[in-house]
Write a structure and sequence with these properties.
By secondary structure, the chain is α/β, with parallel strands linked by helices. Helix content is 18%, strand content 34%. It has one domain: 2,3-Dihydroxybiphenyl 1,2-Dioxygenase, domain 1 (Roll), CATH 3.10.180. The strands form two sheets. The chain has a four-stranded mixed sheet with strand order 1-4-3-2, covered by helices on one side. It has a four-stranded mixed sheet with strand order 5-8-7-6, with no helix packed on it. It is globular, with a radius of gyration of 15 Å. The protein starts with 6 loop residues before the first strand and ends in an 8-residue tail after the last strand.
């Protein structure tokens, strides 16, 4: 048996706002199941499926225990594109031949764009 990580579940205070965020800024396509309890965000570029589930009232959002990292070759170009749509990333950082920048989604979950997968040092 070979376990494979193919899905990540995010708890959201506003499921539609979370889906719209990932659709607008990262080109994911959102579909809800029949009872609208879970949404699935699928990237046309492949990768992990993000599942979105309604957060219970007691769940604290924005905990720093998980960060979604998106592979982006042109960090500055992508930041400029997102800024036009209202998503501001923090300062770009350089590390061992690649760049990255951080932001938060509507529920306070940490997200990052990184050119690490395109680095020659990989």
């Amino acid at each position: 048996m070979r376990p494979a990580l193919n899905r990540i579940l995010l708890y959201a205070k506003d499921m539609q706002a979370t889906c719209t965020f990932y659709e607008r800024h990262f080109a994911f396509e959102c579909t809800f199941d029949a009872d609208r309890r879970i949404a699935e965000l699928v990237s046309p570029y492949g990768g992990v499926v993000i599942m979105v589930h309604q957060a219970a009232k007691g769940i604290r959002s924005g905990q720093a225990s998980v960060k979604l990292v998106f592979d982006i070759e042109d960090i500055e170009g992508f930041k400029a594109h997102c800024a036009k749509q209202g998503l501001e990333f923090g300062a770009s950082h350089r590390a061992d031949g690649y760049s990255f920048a951080n932001a938060k989604d509507p529920d306070g979950n940490s997200i990052s764009i990184s050119s690490r997968s395109f680095s020659a040092r990989r």
